[in-house]
Amino acid sequence: MLEAIGVREMNDLLVDIPQSLRLESLRLPDGLSEFETMAQVAALAKRNYVYPDRLTFRGGGIYRRFIPAAVAAVTSKPEFYTAYTPYQAEASQGTLQAIYEFQTLIAELTALDVANASLYDGATAVAEAAMMAYVHTGRDEVIVSGYVHPEYVQVLRAFGEGRGIKVRKGGEPSKKTAAVIFQQPDFLGLLVDARGLTTAAHDAGALAIACVDPISLAILAPPGEYGADIAVGEGQQLGLPPALGGPHVGFIACRRELVRKLPGRLVGAAHDAAGRRGFVLALAAREQHIRRERATSNICTNHSLCALAAAVYLTYMGPYGLRQVAEVSFKRAHSLAERLSSLPGWEPVFPERQFLNEFPLRVPKSSSVVKKLARKGILGGLEVHRWFRELKDVLTFTCTEVNDPRAMDELLAVLQS
Amino acid sequence: MTEPLSFELSRPAVDPPRLPEADVAGPAPADVLPREALRAKAPGLPRLSEPEIMRHYSRLASLNYSISENFYPLGSCTMKYNPVANEAAAALPGFADLHPYQDESTIQGALELMWRLEQALCAVVGVDRVTLQPAAGAHGEWTALRMIRAYQHSRGEARTEVLVPDSAHGTNPASAALSGFQVVEVNSGADGRISLADLESKLSPRTSALMLTNPNTLGLFEREILDIAELVHSTGAMLYYDGANLNAFMGICRPGDMGFDAVHMNLHKTFTTPHGGGGPGAGPVGVKAELVPFLPAPMVERNNGKLTLDYKRPQSIGRVRSFYGNFGMLVRAYTYILAMGGDGLSQASQDAVLSANYLRKLVENDLEMPHDGPCMHEFVASAHNLNHDGVRALDIAKALLDRDFYAPTIYFPLVVPEAIMVEPTETESKATLDAFAQAIKEIVAQAKTDPQSLHDEPKKLPVGRLDEVAAARRINAYLQGQSEDPVLRWKAPAD
């Protein structure tokens, strides 16, 4: 090949690199066989303790759920996972159609008009939604109402600082408010008055941004129904393993009037000269590769494969499977909440508020309780005090369809021992 | 053959999958929750049996070109083979089933992996520390600019402008704007490299940073990089490295040594984590010592062999993503680096440069080469020479699809008219490169003898060229309230 190029040696191709910059070699060990590589990687994996899913009662934004085998069977197809952003539509119809189906599924779930192709995670989805509100209203303050996931708020602050968006915790919306952001159910698992918050936002001329749990939408009124302008959320529960927090998928959906402000990729239907329907990247004039510094967002690579996983999951479940998953989780969590609340000194933190499948309890000596459970191989409640000072000794417990009744018995047995 | 949508295949008679029953005496939602909190109508999800679902997605998969089946020379995207061992590693339950809020003592292996990956990335790009939090390249760019801004603020400097070459990726100016900077464009010279004179004229006390890709998006190494770095640093500004093209010189040279202060890396390009049809990727950012205090929290720290997550970073720009980044992608990249080793990574880059120059040579008489070689890991050609036959870069791209090749990146960078940006990567054989070059020759010959026929390609794919303009018109009509068909989603036909 060197001869064909017309040079004598490899270095002749590297002549543009100043000599003073040239390296002898990388300061890294030499390569390994696949066998040795996997042995080393597996040894690292073994140094982690994996709590069985049925004994995981901790959530906080990431949940153990049943993942149908169909999900990995689809996402591990190399035609999906080794393709890239579908710039050439005719040779990317599989990816494009899957995204179009994902967009439709999210729009259906949230009861909003249009959803995008995906974002990185729930946290950046909140931040992107705030940016949309900032641009749409020309106002520079967003209000975070109630217990929104603390890491989402941290990301929102970091994004906001770049754009000059002020993030306020709580308080009434005013003429300065671009959006009111709430989470339904909130970080503690409790239901908020989504309708009331939406109305208050609208009365002040602000947008209402609902950060929602996608599985909860099989039970709860969807954002579009109570008038929220933008819905965002984390899609991990839709067929993705926890994986220490990622990769998962953020989603965002909005009303028709806001579609041009959406960040990231959007897929639309189009036709060829023979009238056959296909799918293309649409409204690209919002995006960085066309609009550059005036783009709605800088996002390019998003989380397409995770969106595919979510699409397979939702299609597998269908409307009634999804409701079954949500209802089983609901019933079990309510049963568990009752049993835990009967332990001496254990009590609900907000007894007047409803929840779905995650709930906060005030627990005497909460730290030692969590440690005791861990010693028995149970991932107990989440200590939320680390983010919220006022919630001393509060643990949030979660329960899904993977926490069978015997797992709850085991949890109770350890707590009573 | 196209495939109907899952929604169109849906049959109301399909039962939901069998799922666990609650098996506890607990209330149903409707027993407890107020009616206005409940969903009135079930969401319109499709109803299909598992065999129907599997067949649907298998058919969709067959409509895709991918690295697994096709040469995918998409410039700037480094579409190299994704070793399947990476996938096996990420699927290990010891990684996949970890909850992010487990106690640190139970995730020592995961933290060790993140620590070692950070060390390896530091060695490859020549920086002091790396954050693994950003989820993609653009996310990394923005993270780096936030750090640069925070650093300059801490010194009492209010620098407001970021310089971006005219050949830069679109994410660069977008990330700069998102970070609160004014974007100032720097022109390329006739040789395709940044014009030092223009750079000098645009540097000022307002300049916060210069964002640079090296080799640049034309595949050319910025020969004067040391002078550029000196010039930028002399004004007190910083130098940011867009790592999209890192595959060009691993083990050959390092951005840190060139004078870059912050560097992002695309693990889905250089370090073979799969592209997933558009992500997930990962965009770690490496920085020199002066920016270390501003890295996002938490960072993995190692004390007496014990690994911890350090949240106490008072000068940090905060958090840029939930949890610890795209951990599953970090596992894949680390697996790749272990397998390749320092020697393998160096060889990979040399082979990538060799492949690009070889392919460039094979097609240099067929397409215009606006800049002199040698190139690094990719080259930019132009279809400008075929314009008089009415043939455009788009036509070349579509004709390649009909010959089983994915198309190169076209119409980018913007500084080359009718650009065709080719990045073959090191994992393609000489035979593949020869076949691709042959296809280009045939297409160029066809352009001269029968240009009209090229406009009809692709012919062998499930759909022909899709009318994006008509689609855009329909979307506009929807957005303006003149139509009820959103085009951006499926809607059940009105009964």
Report on the structure:
The complex is a heterodimer of chains A (417) and B (495). With 417 residues, chain A is an alpha/beta fold. Chain A folds into two domains: 53-66 and 318-416, Aspartate Aminotransferase, domain 1 (Alpha-Beta Complex); 71-310, Type I PLP-dependent aspartate aminotransferase-like (Major domain) (Aspartate Aminotransferase, domain 2, 3-Layer(aba) Sandwich). Helix content of chain A is 37%, strand content 14%. Chain A has helices spanning 2-5, 34-46, 69-75, 78-81, 93-110, 122-137, 150-163, 194-203, 223-226, 288-291, 304-341, 366-375, 405-416; strands at residues 114-115, 141-144, 166-169, 177-184, 207-212, 230-234, 250-254, 267-271, 277-281, 347-348, 358-362, 382-383, 394-398. In chain A, the strands form three sheets. Chain A has a seven-stranded mixed β-sheet, sandwiched between helices. Chain A has a four-stranded antiparallel β-sheet with strand order 10-11-13-12, covered by helices on one side. In chain A, strand 4 (177-184), helix 8 and strand 5 form a beta-alpha-beta unit. The mean pLDDT of chain A is 97. Chain B is an alpha/beta fold and 495 residues long. Chain B has four domains: 6-62, no CATH class; 85-340, 3-Layer(aba) Sandwich (Aspartate Aminotransferase, domain 2), CATH 3.40.640; 353-454, Aspartate Aminotransferase, domain 1 (Alpha-Beta Complex); 469-495, no CATH class. Chain B has helices spanning 6-9, 29-32, 50-62, 84-90, 93-96, 108-125, 137-154, 171-178, 196-202, 225-234, 255-258, 327-363, 393-402, 430-449, 451-454, 468-479; strands at residues 129-131, 161-165, 182-186, 207-212, 238-241, 262-264, 285-287, 299-303, 306-310, 379-382, 409-410, 419-422. In chain B, the strands form three sheets. Chain B has a seven-stranded mixed β-sheet, with helices on both faces. Chain B has a three-stranded antiparallel β-sheet with strand order 10-12-11, with helices on one face. In chain B, helix 6 runs parallel beside helix 12 and helix 7 (137-154) crosses helix 8 (171-178). Chains A and B meet through helix 1, helix 2, helix 3, helix 4 and helix 5 of A and helix 3, helix 4, helix 5, helix 6 and helix 7 of B.
